[in-house]
Amino acid sequence: MPEGDGTPVQVHLLQRPLGFLDHVDRLGGERLVQLDGVDLIGAGVSSFSHLGGVHFQNVSSWNGYLGRVQSGQFPIERGFATSATERLTRELILQLKLGHVESEYFRNKFGVEILDVFAAPIGTLQAESMLEIDGDDVLVREMEAPKGESSS
């Protein structure tokens, strides 16, 4: 999010296939948001959330969800505090969803080299032509639909 002058800004997040698109009313226009460990609150049945290092999931049945909400309770079914390694992994996965991961960001925030820490899974995905390395950044390659299948 851009730094502001204190003027209220209404932001709506819409999930897209490779990230989140934000609509910032004061600025106009659209841009992709870099997901860098932000807290996300899921709304609805079975949705996942992450807040202050705690990962949790809402009740997975409609009746159970409504029952808790109507009785004034949070509809949370399970949750756990995440470790530093889990937060690092979560952030890498979120950024992979955007299609591009900058190693420098992880060096600055976590003090790690993601190409070393995640060498095995990155190598596997690279061998399957799903990722490519550009300098020390990771890029997700667009995949073609298997022959005979439509992407629409």
Descriptive account of the structure:
- The chain folds into two domains: 11-81, no CATH class; 84-140.
- It contains five helices and nine strands; from the N terminus they run E-E-E-E-E-H-E-H-E-H-H-H-E-E.
- With 152 residues, it is α+β, with helices and mostly antiparallel strands.
- Mean pLDDT is 78; it is low at 7-34.
- The relative contact order is 0.10.
- The two termini are 32 Å apart.
- The chain is globular.
- A three-stranded antiparallel β-sheet has the order 1-2-3, with helices on one face. Strands 4-5-6 form a three-stranded antiparallel β-sheet, with no helix packed on it.
Oligomer: single chain
| Overall pLDDT score | 78
| H/E topology pattern | EEEEEHEHEHHHEE
Strand order of the largest sheet: 1-2-3
Range of strand content: 25-35%
Kindly state the number of beta strands: 9
Low-confidence runs of at least 5 consecutive residues: 7-34
* Class by alpha and beta content: alpha+beta
Distance between the termini: 32 Å
How many H/I helices?
5
Q: Helicity, in percent?
A: 25-40%
In angstroms, what is the radius of gyration? 19 Å
Largest sheet data: 3 strands, antiparallel
Q: What coarse outline follows from CA principal-axis ratios?
A: globular
Give the count of structural domains: 2
